[in-house]
Prior knowledge:
This protein has five helices and seven strands; from the N terminus they run αβααβββαβαββ. The protein is α+β, with helices and mostly antiparallel strands. The chain has a seven-stranded mixed β-sheet with strand order 1-2-3-4-5-7-6. The radius of gyration is 16 Å and the shape is globular. The protein starts with a helix and ends in an 11-residue tail after the last strand.
Amino acid sequence: xxxxxxxTRFRFPGPIAFDYADLDDLPxxxxxxxxxxxxxxxxxxxxxxxxxxxxxxRVLVARCADRVVAFAIYWIVIDEVHLLNFAVHPAYRxxxxxxxxxxxxxxxxxxxxLVRATLEVRVSNDGAIELYKEAGFVTVAMRRGYxxxxxxxxxxxxxxxxxxxxxxxxG
Length: 171
């Protein structure tokens, strides 16, 4: 059963800052991960991503009043961003943080000279699909039975970051 603190929405306390995660952020990232996904990444896997155990790994966090409220895990693969994991703390959802974090990931990719971004998303995750479409992603394929926990299909979405019409407003 949820406690009032777990279900209370926080007031938007101020500006959002984006930066790369460090090991001090790991407990907050793990909390967001476990509260966001029924089948979640292990602490060890998240730690490896934060530590950049793989040279192509990046973990960008959104901070609100010095609290990690969202994260994006992505890999740099040749000339593209591959978004692997993306979540916002449940108490901070529907405040525009996900949109701003996604824009920050894409902007960082553009700064690095990358030309496209890709991701997989559950076909049932209407909110995420809408977020990605609003950012300019299009569905290019479906991976049948992609999610091992449920056998659910995944939409493969793609954005050409060099195409000006897919640049988010303000990006």
